[in-house]
Amino acid sequence: MKIKETHKVPQLGEKIRLSDYLPNKFATIPSKKGMKKAIQKKLVKLNGVEAHTGDYLTGGEVIDLLFDNTKRKQKAFKINLDVLYEDSYLAIVYKPAGIVVSGNQKNTLENALSSNLDVSDELDALNQMEAIHRLDYPTSGALLIGKTRNTVVALNKMFEKREIVKTYIAITRGKSEPKGCIESPLKGKSAITNYELIESKQSDKYGQINLVKLEPVTGRRHQLRMHMAEIGTPIMGDQMYGPKGKVVIGNGLFLHALSLSFDHPTTGEKINVSAPRPKKFIKFFDQD
């Protein structure tokens, strides 16, 4: 098998077990648990010979980490995804409404990534690419994907530090203020949403409807849906949080992840990617 990384052991003051020495010595598998699994899978060689966790090191040894060529059984899901951005480290894809991002079932967006994206050629490439955040089943739009271990870690930290700006658009019902900030906690946790009215009109069928830009500062589950319902302007088509008996059924939820903006964690490039609005939005508001 092909060598992925090589490490030469410096002179040591005392004997150290291989399993105790290896953590953080290889960039692609930094953890002790990960290295133990690699040894068990016969992916580690000590001076050219298959290594074992109980081997002792004194200094001067050469340790090779091999590529894992065993293919995991993946649940393939064949759908065509629009790829909005892609490089060796990450991608941004258009998530259609009516599909879950991840889970145990076969028909998830993550299970469709391998047939829509190129495999990374980086040393820490993931066997299965990962969605960095989630969009609800009925929500469409831009979804960020990590293709390497280090990129996933970096992007998750960027989300924690609020260095990734997510912008949504929604169509809501009811009288809306021009702009505002909702800071109501959800399930005991801080939750902050900024909103801005783009356009408002009267509809004979639905009453006042609004095209609204939403920027969640935090990322709680169903945050945008709950916050907009709380201020009396529920998102159109929301069967969970909209007023009973007044839910528009047939076109789904009018919530769309419009754009993602952040500095690329590896290249430093400014990434600003937008996902085209669904046609159902244009039916009510035809502006770009």
Task: Tell me the number of helical segments per DSSP (H or I, 4 or more residues long).
Answer: 5
What is the CA-CA span between the terminal residues? 53 Å
CATH architecture of the domain at 166-257: 2-Layer Sandwich
**Approximately how much helix is present in the residues?**
10-25%
Going by CATH, the homologous superfamily of the domain at 166-257 would be Pseudouridine synthase
Provide the low-confidence segments as ranges: none
Q: Beta-strand percentage? A: 25-35%
The computed structural class is: alpha+beta
Query: Over the alpha carbons, how many angstroms does the gyration radius reach?
Result: 24 Å
Net shape: elongated
Mean pLDDT: 91
| Name of the top-level CATH class of the domain at 166-257 | Alpha Beta
Q: What's the total count of β strands?
A: 16
Strand-and-helix sequence, N→C? EEHHEEEEEEEEHEEEEHEEH
At the fold tier of CATH, the topology name of the domain at 166-257 is Pseudouridine synthase
How can the largest sheet be summarized? 10 strands, mixed
Reconstruct the topology from this structure.
Layout: E1 3-8, E2 16-17, H1 18-21, H2 32-40, E3 44-46, E4 49-50, E5 56-57, E6 62-66, E7 83-86, E8 90-95, E9 125-131, E10 140-148, H3 149-160, E11 165-173, E12 179-182, E13 193-203, E14 207-216, H4 223-230, E15 255-263, E16 270-274, H5 279-284
Parallel strand pairs: 10-15
Antiparallel strand pairs: 1-6, 2-5, 3-4, 3-6, 7-8, 8-10, 9-10, 11-14, 11-15, 12-13, 13-14, 15-16
